[in-house]
Amino acid sequence: MVPFGEVPEVALKVIAAHVLGYFNLDAGILPRLKSPAYAFDVNRHQYNAATILKDLGSMPSHDYVKVIGLLDVDLFVPILTHVFGEAKLGGKCAVISLHRLKTDSDGSKASESLILERAAKVALHELGHLFDLVHCMDRRCLMHFSGGLQELDETPLYFCRYCSKSLEDKLHRHGIDV
Ligand SMILES: [Zn+2]
Ligand SMILES: [Zn+2]
Fold it and tell me: Which end of the chain is more exposed for a tag (fewer CB within 10 A), N or C?
């Protein structure tokens, strides 16, 4: 994992624990980077997720199989108003942001435990994409697409049977036993 800017240590630890629990992968924490000013879009006042992904991809990632950048800024992709995270199917790198996870749909501040649970869901979802999992139609599955916080909160913290099996197969192909 690569922390950007001021992202809290506890979020990195919680995500790392979930990555170990669900993917049986040890998540190391790489040196902290500055907030990615280069990806700021002056028209949208948001940060371009694709630009940050490209930058992460060009960084040395040692022996890590996958790299997740954790940010605290508002991310977008051109076709959407915002994204909680972004990853290319089967790619090496993903980015996720805590920015939109901090508020509730009514605008009030979310509790720390809720923010961390959401961050874990987004991280596991994006990591699923990195291991070739596509979006799942089952609303009771981590690979279901969440466009908003309400959907994200309704998404459980587990993969459906189909996605679990598929993930297990993909991980085996990477030599990882779950
Ligand atoms: Zn997705
Ligand atoms: Zn599923």
Answer: C
Class of 2-135 in CATH? alpha beta
**Taking ligand 2, which is a single-atom ion, which protein residues have CB atoms under 5 Å away?**
136, 138, 141, 143, 160, 163
Kindly list the domain boundaries of the chain, sorted by start residue: 2-135
Nearest to 122 by CA among 103, 94, 90: 94
Catalytic residue selected from 6, 117, 126, 151: 126
Q: What pTM does this model have?
A: 0.95
- Residue 33 pLDDT class (50, 70, 90 cuts): very high
Whose structure tokens read 């099996």?
A: 165
Give the mean model confidence (pLDDT) for residues 18-24.
94
Encode pLDDT of 139-165 as tens digits.
999 999 998 999 999 999 999 999 999
Establish whether 126 is a catalytic residue: yes
How many other CB atoms are found less than 10 A from the CB of residue 161?
10
